[in-house]
Design brief:
With 122 residues, the chain is mostly helical. The protein folds into 2 domains: 69 residues, Arc Repressor Mutant, subunit A (Orthogonal Bundle); 32 residues. Helices cover 56% and strands 7% of the residues. The longest helix has 16 residues. The protein is globular, with a radius of gyration of 16 Å. It starts with 11 loop residues before the first helix and ends in a 6-residue tail after the last helix. The model has no long low-confidence stretch (mean pLDDT 88).
């Protein structure tokens, strides 16, 4: 389910965070779904467990996940049902400015694809 792009300029912990957020937004991960344990995911990806722990801690600080001691890390119900209208309004404003300033559409698509893994269907 998770993968690491060793050619990416993004730190590994950020790649994990982005994938989790993307899976929540796509409905692949749902409210209260349990994430893999730190050790399990680190082992699967062949990375240091501290890297996974850092990703999970960052996500928890942003309210994307919550942890229960000795039980695991879970998708937060508030995130799964979050209304992203404010973020979409911000994006609309930015794209509008790009359009007004005649920024090439290919450049805008490149920036968006960087976060959506190049998948235009997502």
């Amino acid at each position: 389910m998770f993968f690491i792009d060793i050619r990416s300029n993004d730190p590994i912990f950020e790649q994990i965070q982005k994938q989790i957020i993307r899976y929540v937004n796509l409905g692949i991960l749902k409210e209260h779904d349990k994430l893999p344990s730190v050790r399990s995911l680190a082992s699967d990806l062949g990375i240091n467990p501290n890297t996974v722990a850092k990703a999970y801690l960052e996500l928890e600080s942003h309210g994307v996940v919550y942890s229960i001691n000795k039980k695991g890390v879970f998708v937060d119900k508030n995130t799964a049902a979050k209304d992203f209208s404010e973020e979409l309004n911000d994006l609309d404003s930015i794209v509008s400015k790009c359009y007004t300033n005649k920024v090439d559409i290919k450049k805008v698509e490149e920036v968006i694809s960087k976060y959506y893994g190049g998948n235009k269907d997502a």
